[in-house]
Predict the structure.
Amino acid sequence: MRTALIQMAVTADKQRNIKTAREKIRAAAAAGADAAVLPEMFCCPYDGACFRAYGEEQGGTAQSALSRLAAELGIYIVGGSIPELADGAVYNTCYVYGRDGRQLAYHRKAHLFDINVAGGQRFLESETLSPGNRITTFETEFGTMGLCICFDLRFEELARCMALRGAKALFVPAAFNMTTGPAHWELLFRQRAVDNQLFTVGVSPARDVSASYVAYGNSIAVDPWGTVLCRAGEEETTLYADLDFSRLEAVRQQLPILSARRTDLYELREQ
């Protein structure tokens, strides 16, 4: 599954951001990508004051553009995330589209990013956003895939539930900051890949040091052994990772982590 990690610059102009995403997805399709992944909040600044103003309801401008493009190009699109407006609330939501443009899944960020690090970053998503309440997987011709957003990745229970559903890869639109990124970004993507013996793919916006929230960048793909397949820097770029799912079985035979679980002693149940 040739996957394009689109680390794009995000501006204050929503239509410009959508145009940029479309252009980069077209280039990815021309390069033979089966799937293109956009960053968290790809169509607006990562700023609580912007979320409602830039938000859209089901079937809105950004969603429609990605759906049409997926059908036109015959490519899977993991649409980063956008502010979704529903029932008076605002959600941080990722929509996924199949090769025919049909919506395969959507995930509302379940764990809101409320952080106040002494001497570092302070950001409270819960002041603006509401949490989702679903574990999200979706089906492709390559098998089951998992989906979560940024802070969700820190919760192993969520990743394990997706793995137990059969997920072969976790797609993670994300925007770690300059405090948490250098400390934990690569560590978490490698850790989740090794713990659950699957691929992890994280896609961030490019870094903009003039923004109110400065994203770390460093979009990354990791294989089930914990090997980094590709990793960006801070700049706007598109990376390509070839996810060879036969690798999962090879790793799982060498290290029987999932099959050796002691479910007589412990069990993880979805609510």
About this structure: The chain has a mean pLDDT of 95.
